[in-house]
Each structure stands twice: as structure tokens, then as C-alpha cells.
Amino acid sequence: MYKIEFSDFFSSAFSVDCLIFGFTEGKIKTLLIKRSIEPYKDYWAIPGDLVYPDEDLPLAAERILRELTGLTNVQMHQAHTFGSPSRHPQGRVITIAYYALVRIEELSIKASSWADEVRWEPVLEVGDLAFDHNEILEATFDRLNKQLSIEPICFELLPEKFTLNEFQQLFEYSKGIPFDKANFRKKIKGIPLVKHTEKQTNVKHRPANLFSFNTCKELDRLEENEWAFKM
Amino acid sequence: MYKIEFSDFFSSAFSVDCLIFGFTEGKIKTLLIKRSIEPYKDYWAIPGDLVYPDEDLPLAAERILRELTGLTNVQMHQAHTFGSPSRHPQGRVITIAYYALVRIEELSIKASSWADEVRWEPVLEVGDLAFDHNEILEATFDRLNKQLSIEPICFELLPEKFTLNEFQQLFEYSKGIPFDKANFRKKIKGIPLVKHTEKQTNVKHRPANLFSFNTCKELDRLEENEWAFKM
DNA sequence: GCAAAAGTGTTTGGATTACACCCATGC
DNA sequence: GCATGGGTGTAATCCAAACACTTTTGC
Lengths: 231, 231
Description:
Two copies of one chain form a homodimer.
Chain A: E1 13-24, E2 27-35, E3 44-45, E4 48-50, H1 57-69, E5 77-82, E6 93-101, E7 115-122, H2 133-150, H3 164-175, H4 181-187, E8 193-199, E9 209-213, H5 215-223
Parallel strand pairs in A: 1-6
Antiparallel strand pairs in A: 1-2, 1-4, 2-3, 2-7, 5-6, 8-9
Chain A binds a DNA duplex through helix 4.
């Protein structure tokens, strides 16, 4: 019935790649590592590795991210699967992309295992990466952008306390177009924000107010179907 | 560096599952096959099979759908990948879900290979399926529903000529809520439809007008960024 | 005072909602 | 005639875009 023996189907490997996105200085950035081993030694790459044959995918994604960058407690979501027969020089390796959103300032990352260095690179400025990682990054960033428009996940990228301008810049980078300040602020009126008494410091203009998301309130309302996030 | 030999990673198999969605009688339906072989012999299942170690994923999806159901020329899109180590009783098999939208009336399907029967089943009424196929169906139907709201793919589900009521019913089934007829028709004013002189027949009430989508015009406008589909 | 960015108000036109009403067909 | 769904109009309301304006800080 099959053109090969049934047992010969069990000859492939698979890997996960972890696309970690953060936001600073008005740009969405992604975490890259420098490979210290072949293939693609000394190339920059998305953190990723082979999955053990008895390992579940989400756990593998956590483990691999931790081993290469030291990051823990990062909630990852599955994106696209890439399976071109020629994408890996050492055999058939299907890779499943996972992505996560993090607050860059709250993290300490450090290269380990076979990662020589780690770096945050603005998504729109990355150069040539190992394997088909440019394609993977592009597809996953597209997906992130779509998600940002329909689900309240921008909260995970912004710092704990942020200005409304930073909030706006995040969406401007995501969509690639500038927004009108007044209209943007009217639009987000429906989102439950907490205003702090504390203000921005060390700026040579009028200091902006700092806000946080009221996560509890927001989740309550989501459950009650009182609002649909839409940007 | 690894806990097992490098070569031992190459011991997994992977499959694709093809979720084919259609729309008739006011319901979105999916194509199921009855398995004639173990495991899960005589269970209903999503059409799917193992991918050859040197075969590309999209081509495998086409081949497998053709072998089991006779369907050809169906454009498939990748959805989620399911990889729980215990999901297949005969070894580690990762499965990648692909989905497609088709016009049921234009197709002739017939069971072949190890499929005993094929059947169109309303998505919201399917019973227990083989493997983790209920989970796969649910996740993929969710994804389809989201896509229906943001991209003009409803065209692929409706018959070539359709009534505005059928159009409305498709979205009502997708969202699970009824719409106001007059308002629905105002909303779709922006979509380029062609009205036929021909009308509905064999109904015991006033016959409805038949419409088709003006695909060319629609694509032109998409390219010019003149409209964003939103339902 | 001036530059720079924070922050707000007003107008306008287009979309969304709720609801009522008329029309064509089979029986 | 009447049941059944097809098809349309209106008024109230909400929302988004465009744009101008005021405020607060550092220098």
C-alpha cells in the first residue's frame, strides 16, 4: 500500500524555533543567537533546536529557549510549521515555530549551550540568518501583527508602566503607518488603563503620564463578552 | 551535548490531515472518511496519512486528499501542528493540519485507498473521531471562523450563484448568531457582486435573486488597498 | 520666549442599529 | 386570501477622520 516500508516513515526529526518579540525604543525586536556549531556556524539564527523523540512540543520550546538564552517563564504560542525536504542539510527536519511576547527591560538573557552571543534586533532590520530563518521570522512577524490587531496582547510587549505615546508607537511599528494622536487616544478609551501619579522623567519637554493595564478588570470584561479588542 | 545520539533524533514520522470545509443547507460541513484499517478501524476520521520522508508538505496534502477522496485542484492552507508524544499508538507521529474551502455541489468525491466511505458532516454535529481528530477539527474550525471575518474567502464556500440569504446564513453559522436582514445587506454593499437575471426556482415563496462574486474587480481593489474585508 | 512633545475639543460624514413596511410566489 | 420568505426605507445613534488648539516642561 505504501511505496516504502511502514517503519521507514520513522526516519525524520523535528525541531522548534522560538521567536521572542520585545519592544523598546519604538521598535519591535526579536531575539537572535549566534551559532557556535555547524551547520551555519557563526551565523545569526532564531533560537531553536531538535526535539527529543518522546518530548512534547510546548515543553521542548520552553527547554530550548532556556538552554540557549536563560529565559524562563515565557508563555509561547505555536505559529507555522516549515517542512521543505531540503531546508536542513543533515536530513529531514521539520521545524515548528513558536513565538512569545516579552518585556525586554524585565529580562536578563545570556548566551549558553551552543549559543555564542544573544542580541535583540529590530525585526525590520535583521540581515541574513541561518537555514530558512528569514522566511520563518517574516511569517511569524506577520502573524504577530495580525494578532496585535485583534487580541489584547500588546500588554505583554509594553513595559509595566508606559506612556500613551509608547503605546501608540507600538501599533505604528506594527502597522507601518503613523496614527493621529488625538484619535488614537479616543480609540483606546475603552481599554481599562490605570493612571499612575508618577510621571515620565529626564525628558526635555512636558513629561507624559504613565499608565498600566488593569489586567483583572480587562479579563473580567473579556469573560463577560463586554468588549472585543480591535485596533 | 545531547542526551541521545544525533542519529536517534531521526526516528519520528509525520502526517498531514486535510480538513475540507463546504457549505450547503445552511450549514458548514466537513469531509470525513471511514477508516478500513487499524488503528481506529471503522472509526470516522479526518482524511490524512503519513508523509514520505522526501515529500514536501503541501504536495503531500494534495496527494493524500486525492488518494482518499478523489478530490483534486483544491488549494490548501496550513493550520495548527499537533505533536503530543502519545497521540498515535504506533510511534511518534506529528501531524500538520491543512484546510481548504470548497463548493460542495461542484465536486464528486468517492472513497478510495483505505477509506471505506466518505461523508459530509455538519461541523457542529460530528461525533467521536479517530485519534485526536475532534481536537484538530475544533481548532481548525475556529481558525476558519476567524479567517472568514477578515478575508474574503466566503466566496470559496458559496456556490457559483447564490442568494443573499445563503450568504447571510453562512456568516450566521460561522458566528453562531442571527443577523438583521436589512442591515446585513447594507453591510455587504461594498462587496463587488454581480446580479444575475436568473432567479431562484422551486421555492414556495417569492424567488430570490441570484448573485456571483466579481472576482476580478474584487482582486483589483484588494491590490489597490481600496477595501478591507470585515464582517 | 521658544522648541518640543503632551494632551484635549469640535466638526463632519459615514457606518451601524433597530424596526417597520411592502412585494412576489405557491397553495 | 394567506403563509412564507424576499427585499427596502427611515431615523437615531455611534464612530472615525481631520484638524486646530491649549498645556507643561527644559533651556
